[in-house]
Amino acid sequence: MAEFILKPDNRNASEAAVIQDIQDVAGRLGRTPTLREYSSNGRYSASVIRRIFGTWNAALGKAGFAPNVEARVDIDRASEDVLRIAKELGHPPTHREYDEHGVYSSKPLRNHFGSWNKTLMALGLSVRFESNISTERLIENLEEVWVRLGRQPSWADMSGPASKFAARTYAHRFGTWRGALEAFVDFMNADESPVNETRAQSDEVADPKLIELHQGVAPGRTARNVNLRTRFLVMRRDHFSCVICGRSPAKDPTVELQIDHIIAWSKGGDGTMDNLQTLCTDCNLGKSDLDFL
Ligand SMILES: [Zn+2]
User: What 3-state class would DSSP assign to 198?
Assistant: First the structure.
């Protein structure tokens, strides 16, 4: 039985050493190895191969072997690797992101499933550029990213872990990324009284989560739950930070901000901006405890 040893710390492996090792493995197997076979028999990891040669076939070429023509990459393994990268990035990877971070290349997966979007769908990952995302969801997501960053998001921010949808999706819907930001600002600046706003939004907002926010409101009284617009304006006024402890998600990603009624809604406090403040979950919990005293 083969001795159990760690693969060498091969971050600085030379091209020549890797080529030699591929030739050694081929000699031992008596045939051109697949990447999978090389990975279990060779000294170097698949990520080293990718870093030095780009692809396994390029490495084989340098070692003097014909390429593995077929998708010898095990689709199951590559699929698992896509899921791993999705977890690592916090969102389903684009094929470019996968090529950058993954052990394999996106190409055999795209060939196997038909396209990268079909690959993501087959793996149960949502497709980032789906066209049927409601405008409300796009606005809602932009609001979340803005709060999280504490500032206007850039195109690149939308590819990061804070966002569920890529900037490209916004550009597609609103013409340009700038157009999306302008639509967002227009939405936030729309001058409506809270009561009218409640009614108007129940009619036009398709997202059940948002409709829920506006149900069960007595006539003439603002909603108990704060709608997206008010939430954003209050947080913006409070500089996207907790008004008690000053912490913010921009500086500490573990911080979650919430909107708090200064005079509790149950005690007649309303949902106007004057009665609302931004608290982190910790401070908000502390405040609720005091309410019970
Ligand atoms: Zn706080």
Answer: helix
What distance in Å separates the CA atoms of residue 292 and residue 173, rounded to the nearest whole number? Answer: 47
Asked if the structure places residue 104 within a domain, the reply is yes
Rounded to the nearest angstrom, the distance between the alpha carbon of 228 and the centre of ligand 1 is 21
> How many angstroms separate the alpha carbon of residue 230 from the centre of ligand 1?
20
The answer as to whether 286 is a domain residue is: yes
Question: How many A from CA of 287 to the centre of ligand 1?
Answer: 10
Q: Rounded to the nearest whole angstrom, what is the distance from the C-alpha of residue 27 to the centroid of ligand 1?
A: 64
**Tell me, what's the pLDDT at 57?**
86
Backbone angles phi, psi at 233, to 5 degrees: -65, -35
Distance 13 CA to ligand 1 centre (A): 49
Rounded Cα distance, 192 and 189, in Å: 9
Tell me whether residue 259 is in a domain. yes
Cβ neighbours around 117 below 10 Å, total:
18
Whether 139 and 145 have beta carbons less than 8 Å apart is answered as no
Question: Do 206 and 270 belong to one domain?
Answer: yes
- What CA–CA distance (Å, rounded) separates 258 from 278? 6
82 and 106 together in one domain: yes
Question: Mean pLDDT, to the nearest integer, of 246-268?
Answer: 92
- Binned at pLDDT 50, 70 and 90, residue 91 comes out as confident
How far, in Å, from the CA of 262 to the mean position of ligand 1? 14
- Mean pLDDT, rounded, for 125-144: 78
Q: What is the pLDDT of residues 165-217, one digit of tens each?
A: 888 888 888 888 999 999 999 888 886 544 434 433 434 444 444 443 344 44
On average, the pLDDT of the chain sits at 80
The answer to whether position 130 is within a domain reads no
